[in-house]
Write a structure and sequence with these properties.
Layout (H helix, E strand, L loop, with lengths): L2 H12 L3 H50 L8 H8 L2 E5 L4 E15 L2 E11 L9 E8 L7 E7 L2 E2 L7 E3 L2 E8 L4 H4 E2 L7 E2 L3 E7 L5 E9 L2 E5 L5 E11 L6 E10 L5 E11 L8 E7 L5 E7 L6 E10 L12 E7 L5 E5 L15 E11 L13 E5 L11 E4 L4 E4 L4 E7 L5 E6 L5 E7 L3 E8 L2 E8 L6 E7 L5 E6 L1
Parallel strand pairs: 7-16, 26-32
Antiparallel strand pairs: 1-2, 2-3, 3-4, 5-8, 6-7, 8-14, 9-10, 11-12, 11-15, 13-14, 15-16, 17-18, 18-21, 19-20, 19-22, 22-23, 24-25, 26-29, 27-28, 27-30, 30-31
Length: 494
């Protein structure tokens, strides 16, 4: 072996030489240096995007504030005075400062006037990026005085933890008029002879089905001015005092509108409130009708006007034939009935639980119904008066009793006069209604319009089933018996 070959072989077995390591390190440094600008540029872009995202949020926040103003209050000077020309956001490590600028352009068109409002937000910290701008159009909407705040006194929390104020007992509602419109409700503002004009506001409550309480809105003329230490007006408001116990429990949307002396309205102020004055009221018109099989009972009722039922609880007890007394304890049939339900079919367990009526044994039952409050599951309203039903009944439900009068020449039978019942629709949607008799034959069909009442007439004595349908709504089923429910509400569509 030659000397050169031996040296080469030894180097391959012992590793890289120092020169080779240094050359490799230099090449690696050159490669890494080429990537540094990319990393720096990425960090700069990420920081710029962070600023731009925050600037967009600042612009949106200021634009929402602008939209709450009346048309007459929108100008560059007014916006700068109200909302300022700078904003700072703390990101957890430092304050990030932004500049806010406004631009207002006014134009006219056939239906009125418009203002084009632009909010622009930029920043001076590095990295500097392009500014963020948002634009909206504001239309001159109101001729009457505009409200700026609807205040509830005393202010209570909703027991369910929602952000809506709760009202209970004596309550005061103050509807504050926007400062720009004080001159619309007061003559000689801040001058000698200052006096309220012939202005007023209207108040009403609306539930989730847009049903208004009371039936007509309330007119309020009590206008108040508050003065500062120098005798200048610093607040103007209408005040309405009422007892919330007159409003059914539940969630309501309270709406207020102020009118000028020409009966021209301002904006509509909406405030969702919760009325809570105790447990739910007693359900109405509980009725029990025995089935022809002597092993079932059909129950019907109408809900009380409150809007805060979580559920119904239905109970039953059986007359003790041995002691001749009603037991103290009631058996719960269902403790989770839908709060909008108006009927229940009690199917007896003839051999398992209770020997329902038969030719040898006549049993007597009582039913009662409670409503449970939605805020406090332990708050149960008072029960209905117990309704009694006998099985088998003295007169089978599917038979029409007759009165027979005898003479020396002939015998005649006369039936009871026909009965009628009402279907009350309190929703804003029409329903198609059909009525079936005990033979499951349709004897009546019609429509009941929104917020209307349909009267079903010419009903002979017997058991009936009522079905109400509407597109997109659950099918409602109700059972009733005539003449026990004659001239009563046989279905209440809520």
């Amino acid at each position: 072996m030659r000397f050169g070959e031996a040296a080469s072989s030894k180097r391959s077995q012992g590793g890289f030489t120092l020169t080779e390591v240094m050359v490799a390190a230099m090449l690696l440094l050159v490669a890494m240096a080429a990537f540094v600008p990319f990393f720096l540029n990425g960090l700069s872009q990420a920081s710029s995007l962070r600023y731009k995202s925050l600037a967009t949020n600042v612009a949106r926040d200021h634009m929402e504030k602008v939209r709450r103003l009346d048309y007459r209050e929108i100008s560059v000077a007014e916006l700068e005075e109200r909302f300022g020309t700078s904003a700072a956001i703390y990101d957890g490590a430092r304050n990030m400062d932004f500049n806010v600028a406004y631009d207002v352009e006014e134009s006219s068109y056939d239906l009125g006037t418009l203002k084009k409002v632009t909010v622009t937000v930029d920043w001076e910290d590095t990295p500097v990026g392009s500014a963020v701008s948002l634009t909206t159009m504001i239309h001159q909407q109101f001729l009457g005085p505009r409200g700026s705040l609807l205040e509830i006194i005393p202010l209570r929390r909703d027991p369910l933890g929602t952000p809506f104020p709760g009202i209970s007992g004596p309550t005061t509602a103050r509807y504050h008029i926007a400062q720009a419109d004080w001159g619309l409700v007061i003559d000689n503002l801040d001058q000698e002879g200052m006096v309220a004009r012939n202005v007023y506001m209207r108040v009403a409550f609306f539930d989730n089905d847009r049903l208004m309480f009371p039936d007509e809105d309330i007119k309020v003329t009590d206008l108040y001015c508050q003065l500062d230490a120098s005798g200048k007006v610093n607040d103007v408001y209408f005040e309405y005092q009422f007892d919330s116990s007159e409003v059914p429990d539940g969630y309501w949307e309270m709406r207020t509108i102020a009118y000028n002396e020409y009966n021209e309205p301002g904006n509509v102020w909406r405030l969702r409130v919760r009325v809570e004055d105790g447990p739910p009221e007693v359900p109405l018109y509980l009725a029990a009708v025995p089935g022809a099989d002597n092993q079932s009972v059909s129950l019907t009722w109408t809900g009380a006007p409150e809007r805060d039922r979580a559920r119904y609880v239905l109970e039953r007890r059986t007359f003790d034939l041995e002691t001749g007394l009603w037991p103290d304890l009631w058996m719960t049939l269902d403790d989770d009935l839908d709060p909008k339900s108006t009927s229940y079919f009690d199917q007896g367990e003839m051999y398992v639980f209770d020997p329902w009526g038969d030719p040898e044994t006549t049993n007597t039952y009582q039913y009662r119904l409670h409503a449970v409050d939605i805020c406090n599951p332990g708050l149960i309203g008072p029960p209905t008066e117990a309704v009694e039903v006998v099985i088998p009944p003295s007169t089978p439900p599917d038979e029409v009793p007759t009165t027979t009068s005898s003479t020396t020449t002939s015998t005649t039978s006369t039936t009871l006069p026909p009965s009628s019942g009402d279907v009350v629709n309190t929703t804003n949607q029409s329903y198609f209604v059909t009525v079936k008799n005990a033979s499951n034959s349709v004897i009546f069909s019609s429509s009941v319009g929104k917020n209307s009442t349909l009267t079903v007439t010419n009903l002979a004595e017997g058991y009936y089933q009522l079905v109400a349908t509407s597109p997109g709504k659950p099918t409602l089923t109700q059972s009733f018996f005539m003449p026990e429910q004659h001239n009563q509400v046989v279905m209440n569509i809520l």
